[in-house]
Amino acid sequence: MTEASRSHLEALANAVTSRKANRTVIAIAGAPGSGKSTFAERLEAFLNTANSGSAAVLPMDGYHFDDGVLIARGLRARKGAPETFDVGGLLHTLGRLKRNEEDEIAVPVFDRGLEISRAGARLIPQSVRYLIVEGNYLLLGSAPWTALHPLYDVTVAVVVPEDVLRQRLTERWRGYGLPPEVVTAKVETNDLPNGRFVMERSLPAEFVVSE
């Protein structure tokens, strides 16, 4: 971890732990390939080092619509775009988690290797004080995403240059053994356009970091 990354984590952790809420929700948003998932995991580990079991991550990717739904809607090639997520499902679950009235809540996790969401793949217990929700579109300034915003206590944007996004996304898809032409199509016609949309349409965040 670089000194800059550690500084970001410390500043954010101080802001989070200074709040007196029963459960604090930290929203981390950024373009595909920006490093938001990595930053969320680092923040989780950082908070848990100080107070074991106090933090957990809720990835937005678990709320991808199934391929069967996307095919029926003609959206399979756009998987990962804003309209390919169950925002209502995320809103419902995040509301339950924010209230923190249940012993534990099961949440879905997206399996990138299988390209499906696995229901009930992670449990978030009542003892978690800091819930870190991460995903591309969490800070979009348009409906239905704005319905999520009142549930956030702290907001974070992870921002990196487009050339870095292109390199990371290309390496990501190559890692799944996809042919070069498929990798290029995924990056140039879906991932990067989605990334530009995130950068242009998201509302300002309380914290801005780079990974």
UniProtKB/TrEMBL annotation:
<feature type="domain" description="Phosphoribulokinase/uridine kinase">
    <location>
        <begin position="25"/>
        <end position="168"/>
    </location>
</feature>
<dbReference type="Pfam" id="PF00485">
    <property type="entry name" value="PRK"/>
</dbReference>
<keyword id="KW-0808">Transferase</keyword>
<keyword id="KW-0418">Kinase</keyword>
<dbReference type="InterPro" id="IPR006083">
    <property type="entry name" value="PRK/URK"/>
</dbReference>
<dbReference type="GO" id="GO:0005524">
    <property type="term" value="F:ATP binding"/>
</dbReference>
<dbReference type="InterPro" id="IPR027417">
    <property type="entry name" value="P-loop_NTPase"/>
</dbReference>
<protein>
    <submittedName>
        <fullName>Nucleoside/nucleotide kinase family protein</fullName>
    </submittedName>
</protein>
<dbReference type="GO" id="GO:0016301">
    <property type="term" value="F:kinase activity"/>
</dbReference>
